[in-house]
Amino acid sequence: MENRHSTQVNTVMPELSRANKRPLYIQLFDYFTQEIKTKRLPYGCKLPSKRRLSAYLKVSLNTVDNAYQQLLAEGYVESRPRSGLFVIYRTEHLFPDGEKFRNKYPDTESEPQSDLIDFSHGKVDISHFPFQFFRKYSRWLFTEEGSCFFQNGHFQGLSALRREIAGYLYQSRGVISTPSQIAVGAGTQFLLSRLLSILPGQMPFAMENPGFHRVRSLVRDLGIPMADIPIEADGLAVDQIRRMDAGTVYVTPSHQFPLGMILPVSKRMALIEWANQNNNRWIIEDDYDGEFRYIGRPIPSLQGLDRGRSVIYLGTFSKSLIPSLRVSFMVLPVPLADCYKKRFSLYKQSASSLNQQLIREFMRNGDWEHHLNRMRTLYKQKHQAIIQAIHQYMDKAVAVIGEKAGLHLILQINSRMNEKELIAAALQEGVKVYPTSIYYAAGLKPEHPQILLGFAGLNGDEIGEGIRRLSLAWKK
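Predicted structure:
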């Protein structure tokens, strides 16, 4: 039988405070929920009548009624005709056997080691982030004058930011565009998903192998036929593209991901020639970390060489600023820009207008250029530190691949251990490194295991110590 005894109104009932900013009915509601959760008001217990409780607490009947209605709404009690309100909440209904549940579904996330050195390629240096400028611009944004950016932005992105991007890209990468050709969005994957919906989907989508696994996954999820093009010593095998009937080719020419080589001008021109032979052929140029090059002069973008006819240019602020801003952009050829406007004019902008305006202010005032120059110098120093440490501790045990640009490099390991064993051995020494096998399409893998090392998020001492630990781990 259920326990249906009535609570007794006595001195354990709450003393409601009219000086408290919280409404009286909320104070009463909080009291009852606490009593119910701690089982001082157990399952099946009957609550006092509204009149009795209001008289005891010297509050209005409406106050008690509002508290009881909230208890009903949130499922703590139920109303029984001509009987009153009864407690129906009990934790064992939610978790019948909490201990068994925890054992069956343990929390697999663990706290990272305090001394773990993480060579993640997705991290950037945050110690040199321009905090003072962003604080200044943020203070301005959160004023009445800046509050115009509190609303939803234009579906293509703030026009003022797109103007800054167009000017910067022309000066730095030779990209030829107008603000109306630029679309801003919350990350490259998001923009790619929109782009692929307006490109011809019946023809194969060709991409580098190895290449960005997130792009490959996106294309597959959208049901678009794929063709994987192998990477040669100097980049994409353009000759293979000429022999196939692809509609779109996705490339990372300034710093091939993950292997790091730079596509030479001869191959760039051959790729552009292939695209211009047919109005339904497009090249997607992902310039994900094109700002950072350490050897030689910058090579012009594919988009600039093509003068914007067949090349779609992708860029991001994730590497040059911080990933959490979630602001990326793409430059579309005029025909595709027109398609984009027709297709997505009713869609909401996905990137925060506040973040967009922060970046715009940063670029407009010249702080962006100074910041990039500082980061280029800083990352060049880190690049030199990791190369020197590899030479010092590993010597001929590894080959370095793709070290001329970007914020990561590849170590090809001469070892009896396979990729999985190398990563596990590194973790035993307190170093986290990353596989490259995930970037290869099925059926292709390197002859020797290759490990990816990002260095942007580490300081010089951490880089040196990390490489030293790796040398110990991989000698075992």
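Summary: The first helix runs from residue 24 to 37.
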